[in-house]
Amino acid sequence: MPGLLSVVLATSNEGKLVELRSLFGDLPVHLLGLSAVLGDRPAVVETGTTLEENAILKARAASAATGLYALADDSGLEVEALGGRPGVRSARFAHERATDAENNAALLRELEEIDDASRRARFRCVLALVSPWDPVNVELAEGTCEGLIARAPRGSGGFGYDPLFIVPELGGRAMAEMSEREKNEVSHRARAARSMRDKLEKMLAARLVEVERVAGA
Q: Where are any strands of DSSP class E within 67-199?
């Protein structure tokens, strides 16, 4: 039953939209881009000090603005040699309006003197799902992917830090060198999505019961 539940994806990042639609595309959920519903993304000041806090801020703002369930993602790259930076500031590492290329260049400059064995890092993703009827109680899911930071960008796929993030479990390739299918097997966002699926499926089951109750009334 297509479109059993409408969920707005609280992001303007086209790469995240594509990935989330792919990861949840087999569920009877109508996934809407925020711009398709509102035209513009609601102004959200990401004042949280953690990925969890920012994901919740974005999900609540999108749900309040649209009156729909909202699914928000906040992701970050945590580099051990940098004490976990850029972390929550991954999208703004070079400066507040940085492009992916500027953030990648800034990261490479910071790691220039770091040897290959000490370039360990992880991608971490937190997904937050908010109901318009109960925005206080938030469903959260988290996923991580361990890897290393390359010395130069590799590959042409993906977005963000994908050209620099090497995944040892897939033959030492950068995420930007993987197919969509491969990335959706190991990425931090894919792992968070697999955890969130259980919560969405419970909502869908409850929604189906309600639809059948109304239809039989």
A: 69-79, 120-131, 134-149, 165-167, 173-174
The per-residue pLDDT for 1 is 44
Instruction: Check 74, 115, 116, 134 and give the catalytic one.
Output: 74
Sheet of 165-167, strands arranged across: 29-33, 5-9, 69-79, 120-131, 134-149, 165-167, 173-174
Spell out the domains of the chain, with CATH numbers in brackets. 5-216 (3.90.950.10)
pLDDT, averaged in runs of 10, over the chain (217 residues): 75 83 86 78 71 94 91 95 96 93 97 95 96 91 97 94 94 93 91 91 76 64
* Tens-place pLDDT, residues 65-112: 899 999 999 999 999 999 999 999 999 999 999 999 999 999 999 999
- Is 74 catalytic? The answer is yes
pLDDT tens digits, 180-189? 889 988 999 9
Q: What is the DSSP string of 204-215?
A: HHHHHHHHHHHH
CA distances from 57 to 10, 129, 183, 200, 206 (A): 10, 11, 27, 19, 26
Q: Which residues contact 109 (CB under 8 A, 6 or more apart)?
A: none
**DSSP notation for 8-30:** EE----HHHHHHHHHHHTTSSEE
φ/ψ (deg, to 5) at 171:
75, 20
Q: Is 140 helix (H, G, I), strand (E, B) or coil?
A: strand
CA distance 142 to 56: 13
